[in-house]
Amino acid sequence: MQLQLPALVVALTLQSQLCFAQPTRTPDSPVSEDDFRSAIVNIKNATWHLPRSGPAKCVSGIVEVTAATTKNLAFDYELPKNQSQVAELAVDFLTASSGFPEALVTGMQKAGGTFSIGSTLCLPKNNTKPSTVQILTHGFGFDRFYWDFAPGYSWVDIAAQHGFATFYYDRLGVGESDTPDALNIVQAPLQVEIAHQLIEMLRSGHFGVGFPEVVGVGHSFGSGITQGITAQYPQDLNGTILTGFSLNSTGQNSFLASLNLEIASANAPYRFASTPPGYLVSSTAISQQIAFFKAPGFDPDILNLVEATKATGTLGEFFSLGGIVAPATEYDGPVAVINGVNDLPFCSGDCNYPTDLAKALLPALYPASNKTDTYLAPDAGHGLNQHYSAGRAFEFAQSFLEKVL
């Protein structure tokens, strides 16, 4: 589906009206539209909204999450004060002999608090309450609407068609969520704890509706968080889907260089003027294309919309991602890995070289799981959901879950 940019910009203004559905799974229990509205609790500033197309019912707002960790890293480092220092930071990161950022780490530190997290919960609009919810965690450069980006580019849409509920949220530091200290607070270990708390809320009925089964779905950094959940809290998830992810790091330097990171408040002051120091964004649409896209597998208007809606990441996240990924030896649930075949950061542009890198991940990180599968989306880069072939990847994921749950 090719859309003109003006239509996409209009769609962007309706981000709070995202979610799609055409349920096909067997209904679990009936719930009317009025029941849905009256049942939902503990979502502040709740907005009830219709989907962009197709029958679904969604509520968006703010969820208060209390989370803490003792595993955030402590650094001997001062945040960059200007763009020249950010550029030099990238050079240090890319220099083979610099030992960066490991050389900056002085130990571990506690971090935590009660945080406001921008969130959306969607149910299929067929007067049923699904037994399974997918918690969707986005990666760097996007907010939660990565999962429901535009008509024809919506994981939420396809999940609802298959009868699944979805809960997607802005990571701490992104979108409608709080933006605390970018170095000491917003790090990968605390993001894992926030996701863990959200999973417990979904399962326990904290929002007024409980889900016996929770599936974790991530993209890129969000996959790292999801994988970290399976390693640290193996009972949290009934299924796991990792997208834009592998154990191959040879493309990471190319990815970082292509982003050409800039201070968010300087790059887009009309959006990020109040963003604290240490929050960064990719610089231009060309940066987005190199890092996230693969021609000819995308619509240029979608690329422009990605640039117009780009989100922040923090230095703390960049420095701490590697610390949360570990073999999930006690997790025996189903796992699927889905990548764009031309993913740059996790495959150096070819996920089949020197072997299928999605398949290589499974025995290394999930030795106890015997229900696994992989899919490589054709003509797609790291930003898988924004490519023409995204729909095939979405269908693969939902069909996999229907088989294994």
Automatic annotation (TrEMBL):
Segment forming the signal sequence: 1-21
Q: InterPro entries, per this entry?
A: AB_hydrolase_1, AB_hydrolase_fold
- Which keywords describe this protein according to UniProt? Signal
In terms of Pfam families, this protein maps to: Abhydrolase_6
Q: Where is the AB hydrolase-1 domain?
A: 135-386
Under which name does UniProt file this protein? AB hydrolase-1 domain-containing protein
